[in-house]
Design a protein that fits this description.
Helix content: 25-40%
CATH class of the largest domain: Alpha Beta
Bound molecules: FE2/S2 (inorganic) cluster, fe (ii) ion
Largest sheet: 8 strands, mixed
Distance between the termini: 43 Å
Number of helices: 14
CATH architecture of the largest domain: Alpha-Beta Complex
Radius of gyration: 24 Å
Strand content: 15-25%
CATH topology of the largest domain: Naphthalene 1,2-dioxygenase Alpha Subunit, Chain A, domain 1
Length: 456
């Protein structure tokens, strides 16, 4: 494919052809300004070391210095809609017991009994509690964390009830997402989220709810697995079926501060890798337009027809009015990342949330939470969050009930790279990965931010 090879400053070169911004600005249903704003900066071009993906020492450092110092997406508010509802979020050995209080607020406690350390509720589970009762000897706390009773209290004259309240950790919410921070000196969540609340001002994520949650084991370190979703550069070789109906080399990448980044890649356009002009009719066909009974009339584009189709079908399915939603918000792949491991898509037809965590102490495996959100019709109460569907490395996403088969296939293609990547970096004589200045800048940002935490 043709690219502009320039001797100008590194990071300034871009793929030839219309940019994501150009394409979106041409849409008749105008996108909000945040989508077309750009925020790239060059972060250097040195190789980024492989050892961090398989080193036990780096894993331990992450556990000591990064995971407990960052705000982590723990669950959705609809996991704990009612007073006394609880949910456990864990990463490595860290475990938070999150409980809705009677006044609607949320508290989070270290998920460990103050008697002999028993886990109070199992990792990853949701429950509705009367009290918090340890299953081992029955010490019991109120859902506000205050110690209520100890069997044979006469034997524990040395236990002061106030001192034996459960240990609270920082918890806060934004956009219907519940975050926890295991640090005793956590910065305010809103400061940590940087530009995210401003970017999402027009996308109130609290008005959405979780409809499908797949939890898959991936055969790669959590960072490597996550990086497979931070760029569209791999679409050419990994997802070639997408070239006829999606932008890739012309995707837009943005980074803000240390914690936030974004890509936007357009749907309903052709990859710049494909030679020659593709007609709008061909693009619409590649989007499955024939099966959907879609056709172009005068002046229509594949983007306008496909997005209009989704406005009516998805609007009807969800019971919401999507007539005011722009083409880009309807169909494009718009993905924000918040360090260390959280990604959200504000789009309507691609409404995913991702979370990546280490799989215990196995540095070569990770847990990938893939969630889909739906808009909640005004005046209705969202249903309680569904339980995660857990699938192993070998199980296809397409086997999960409710998963869109086209998307499932794409995620399978991503998975198929990971085991080989894990092996390949260990075989390599070259000690690090060589990243594109623009298309892979989000990976570099994550690794640079991680280094800041690890060396703090
Ligand atoms: S360990 Fe919890 S009551 Fe004994
Ligand atoms: Fe992919």
């Amino acid at each position: 494919m043709a690219t502009i090879q320039t001797k100008s400053a590194p990071g300034t070169a871009r793929c030839e052809g219309p940019s994501t911004r150009d394409i979106i600005l041409k849409d008749e249903h105008k996108a909000p300004g945040v989508i077309t704003e750009e925020s790239y900066r060059y972060l250097g071009d040195e190789d980024v070391d492989y050892a961090a993906y398989y080193s036990e020492e780096v894993h331990r450092l992450e556990m000591d210095k990064m995971w407990p110092e960052t705000w982590l997406f723990a669950c959705r508010e609809e996991h704990i809609p009612n007073p006394k509802d609880s949910h456990v979020f864990d990463v490595g050995d860290y475990s938070a017991l999150i409980i809705r209080q009677s006044d609607g607020s949320i508290k989070a406690f270290i998920n460990s009994c103050k008697h002999r350390g028993m886990q109070l509720q199992e990792n990853g589970t949701s429950d509705s509690l009367k009290v918090i009762r340890c299953p081992f000897h029955g010490w019991t706390w109120g859902t506000d964390g205050k110690l209520m009773s100890i069997p044979c209290a006469w034997d524990f004259p040395h236990v002061d009830n106030a001192e034996y309240a459960l240990d609270e950790i920082a918890v806060d919410t934004w956009g219907g997402f519940v975050f926890v921070n295991f640090s005793s000196s956590a910065p305010p969540l809103m400061d940590y989220l940087d530009v995210l609340p401003r970017q999402f001002a027009g996308w109130p994520m609290q008005n959405r709810h979780l409809v499908l949650h797949i939890q898959k084991t991936l055969p790669a370190n959590w960072k490597m697995a996550q990086e497979a979703f931070l760029e569209a550069y791999h679409v050419l070789a990994t997802h070639p079926q997408g070239l006829a109906s999606a932008g890739d080399a012309n995707a837009q990448y943005d980074i803000w501060g240390d914690h936030i980044s974004r890509f936007v890649h357009t749907i309903g356009t052709r990859s710049p890798h494909l030679k020659g002009e593709g007609s709008e009719a061909e693009i619409l066909k590649a989007l499955g337009g024939d099966d959907l009974g879609l056709s172009l009339k005068n002046g229509d584009t594949a983007r306008s027809v496909f997005s209009e189709h989704l406005r009516s079908t998805l609007g009807e399915a969800m019971g919401v009015d999507l007539s005011g939603v722009s083409t880009s918000e309807m169909i494009d792949s718009i993905e924000y990342h918040c360090f260390p491991n959280f990604m959200i898509f504000p789009g309507i037809s691609l409404p995913m949330v991702y979370r990546f965590r280490p799989d215990g102490d196995n540095v070569d495996q990770s847990i990938f939470d893939l969630m889909f959100l739906s808009l909640t019709p005004e005046g209705t109460t969202p249903p309680k969050a569904p339980e995660p569907v857990k699938i192993g490395i070998e199980t296809s996403y397409t086997e999960v009930e409710g998963m869109n088969p086209r998307l499932g296939n794409i995620y399978d293609q991503d998975t198929s790279n990971l085991a080989r990547l894990t092996k390949g970096i260990k075989a390599s004589r070259k000690k690090g990965q060589t990243l594109g200045n623009y298309q892979e800048v989000r990976i570099r940002q994550v690794r640079q931010t991680l280094d800041k935490y690890l060396s703090a």
